[in-house]
Amino acid sequence: MQLVMTSLGRALLSQLHFRMLLLTILPFVLSLVLWGVVLWLGLQPMIDWLHAYFVDNNLFQWAASMLGWFGLGAIKTVLVPLIAMWLLLPLMVVTALVFVGVIAMPAVVRHVSLRYHPQLERLHGGSLAGSLSMSLGSFLIFAGLWIVTLPLNALPPLAFVVQPLLWGWLTYRVMAYDALAEHASSEERRALMRTHRWPLLAIGIAAGAMGAAPTLLWLGGALSVVLFPLLAGVSIWLYVLVFVFSGLWFQHYTLEALARLRGNQPLARAEIAAGR
After folding, report:
1. Residues 204, 84: Cα–Cα separation, whole Å
2. Assign residue 248 a region: left if phi > 0, alpha if psi is -120 to 50, beta otherwise?
3. SS3 for 92?
4. pLDDT digits over 224-254, tens only?
5. Is residue 192 within 8 Å of 261, Cβ to Cβ?
6. Contact (Cβ atoms closer than 8 angstroms) between residue 208 and residue 138
7. pLDDT tens-digit series, residues 105-130
8. How far apart are CA 100 and CA 254, in angstroms?
9. Which of 49, 50, 187, 192 has the lowest tally of Cβ within 10 angstroms?
10. CA-CA distance, 49 to 178, in Å (whole number)?
């Protein structure tokens, strides 16, 4: 836990650096442009399809009874747009995550390595293709869990638990790979992600809790539908900011862990061999 807290303090200081603040701009603009076009062209057709599906399968009556049981009967009038928004939300988030991984993480790696670990050798055990593969595979699992747990968002206490866990797992999987891709060999990366699995997951869950905060903007019922374009833009920027900070936290932690691993060469060889 000492390394987790030390890397947190370093990440906070790094996030305040002017260059790190600028890193939020390009991923945000790209995400905003992409989703502006997607929503302009596809949101209404998606809502129309969902409405027709509900009508064909008599789901409005069932949903009204369920919402009434929880005292949320007023939501039934905007139920279909809300469902469309909640289905699109994980796609928006993973888009921001991918843009941060591709655009911001190289700058994060340079910033942290040059300031804190200038002597650490770079073995280039990861790649852009590997990063995209890890992101896609993790997102597919995440998306399935997101859809399965979607009804729990109607119960705020459960939503506050499920959301950080889901975002934490996704952030841990993607960020840990990107943080180690340039400096660690593939064997070192696998060894570190195995031996430091729980601290890395703890960082991911903490980042997931921060990432769940923008999701709360989407719990406003009918008001969320009215303010959807504004909420989408604000949410994307907040997600980008959280992901950049998470990237800094993971980067500080993993490079320090890698430096310690290499500093104890017999242990490093044993841990790497155990991963084969």
Report:
1. 27
2. alpha
3. helix
4. 555 666 777 777 788 788 888 988 999 999 9
5. yes
6. no
7. 888 988 999 999 998 989 988 887 88
8. 18
9. 49
10. 38
